[in-house]
Amino acid sequence: MKTLNILLIEDDMIEVMKLNRATNSLQLNHKITEANNGEDALKILEQKDNLPDIILLDLNMPKINGIEFLKILKSDDRLKYIPTIILTTSNNQRDLLECYKVGVAGYILKPLKYEEYVSKIEKLLSYWSINELITV
Amino acid sequence: MSQEQVEILQRALKREKNARKAAEKILEEKSRELYFTSQKLENLLDAKSSELQGVFENIVDAYVVMDLNGKILKFNEAATKLFGYDIDKEEVKIAKLIYKDDFQYAVECFNNLQTTGFFKDYETRVYTKSKEVKWVHVNGSVVFDKNNKPIAAQGIVRDITEERASAERLIESENRLSTLILNLDSGIVLEDENRNIVLTNNKFCELFKINAEPTDLHGKDCVTSSEQNKVLFKDPEGFLNRMNEIDVAKELVIGDELEMIDGTILERNYMPITIGEKSKGFLWTFTDVTLKRTYRKSLEVQKQKYYSIIANMHLGLVEVNTDDEILMINQSFSEMSGYTEEELLGKRGGEIFPVEGGSEIISIENEKRQKGESNSYEIKVNTKQGDIKYWLISGAPNYDINGNVVGSIGVHLDITELKALELQKEKLLLKLEKSNDELQEYAHIVSHDLKSPLRSIDALVSWLKEDNKGTLDETSLKNFELIEATLEKMEQLISDVLEYSSVGTDTNIKAEVDLNKMFSDLTTILYIPKHITVKALNQLPVITGDTTKLQQLFQNLISNAVKFIDKEVGLVVIDFEDLKSHYKFSIKDNGIGIDKQFHDKIFKIFHALNKSKDSTGIGLSIVKKIVDLHEGQIWLESQPKVGTTFYFTLKK
Hints:
heterodimer, A: alpha/beta, Rossmann fold, 5-stranded parallel β-sheet, 5 helices, 5 strands, B: alpha+beta, Beta-Lactamase, 6 domains, 5-stranded antiparallel β-sheet
């Protein structure tokens, strides 16, 4: 299985911990880069020689929110090819539609139960690790 | 006797003898003279006769001589031409020439001729050789010989066929004219210089109530008659005076009106009739115009009525011609627009009032009028005072008598206040929509923000359990489980609140929903324990509504029913009834039942009767809200411990 370079954009500390703990307990060797908000993420993405394979994006964030960030990403000639998966609590139909309209590679609802979360993350990451991705 | 006496007597006798001889000689001479004269006269007569004969033969009219037996002896050229016979070649009897109906008359004439020796102006019809009938005029006389014995009859015959025909035509047209006059719908009196009636007709007698034939009036004096007739009129003296006035002036008068006692209105005309320079009399005509006048009067009344309606109605009225130039406005329009009628007449309505594209609307509307279309439209206008007003204009084309469009008439209603309300309503709606949106967003954000900590707590709890595996005692593990259950309930509560707040939105998504399919879908989605049967009694209808919400409705009610069944064999029965405008549904269970006092309360939010692990108290509030959205009602019948039936109606 391929090791993925994952950019996690998430402002909630515990959510970051959850992903890390989940990948650890699943014994996955993916490299996770963390950004606490959209601005930080854009800074990280400036390093064009070290772009992530996929982006996991939360919608509810301070400053630049998820959808705004997504729009910036998709208007960039290079960054727009990075598969971006939404990881959110919002089951708002409007958000869902808007995200697919701008262009996302997936929309995953964060479940209440941690076990369920681990299971979803496992499936998500295994799916993307078998995908062919555009590399620099 | 003395010698002397004898001598005297002898001398006297001798003188007498001589005198007689002289007289005899004179007589003889005279006699001779007379003979010669007579001889001469006879010759002269002969000459005259033959001369006369020549005249007859050569005159233009036909000249006919016949013997006393009626055999034609002589025809002159004109006669030959007239009758067509050549008497040198055939014998012609006069009887053959007489038209059969006139034969009796001919015989009379012939007798007349024999007794008096002549006849004059005998007019009769004759046959020509070609059996043509001709009218002729004959003057005839007997011809005597030297011994004064009648030997023949001669006559001058003139062809008057043409004259006769034109005379007949004249009579005919005179007859026609007099019939026409007699039956004319106007009363007529033709009088002469002395004011005597020459001609009148039936209508005149009728109008003046004269019980006589028109002909009986001929020759009557108009002055006396009028004196008698004046009582028929409301103003008898006026009638006479005016008539005398006209008579004195002897000039054309048209359209005098006379009012009679019985209400009849007569129109009187007077005209002197002159042919060339010559006066032929004076013609009075009287026409009954009562109907016309009363018609005009009632028309006037109607007109006045509509005029006052127009003037007093609360609607502005404007009449324009095809160039949109104002021809007439009413008082209300003057008040509406702030302009006086004088200020507006001749101006173009489409140029004075409209603002914001109104002029174009008006010109488009005017084109429609030209095509004969009517409709109404709204425009925004500026009054003279500069106030902005909204007018609703109902326009219709205006036609002349021949059906041509000559402009249009617009009825104007000031709808400014209405419009303001409408605009206000629109604004409010927009505002409402916006605030609904905001609320919706708010609900989502709140629910997200509330749920996030729950997730975190759940993760932390599970890590605690995981990291301390084997070191935790029974009670701690139990407490962890309680934390997790509480988290789940909290999450459910948040989801339900969000759902409840969402029900009022997006109602415009209406579609045909097949409830049978929805019901069978639900039975697979819902958790239904083995001992409970959920069934529909009949085929369910297809209704129009919001699929998601209808599903939510049935789902909540069915799951509620299932949830509260305490019997060993559970039964949930769904049925419906068709009620014209609505469908009435029922969902019946044999569960724990609901006490009467709670029947209203249960539909209110956060009023769950049973504080159970999976009951948030919002489900039935959502149900009520969905039923409200479908213009229906919800109620229930229940018997505690026996079961509950929920009824609800949905609009078709």
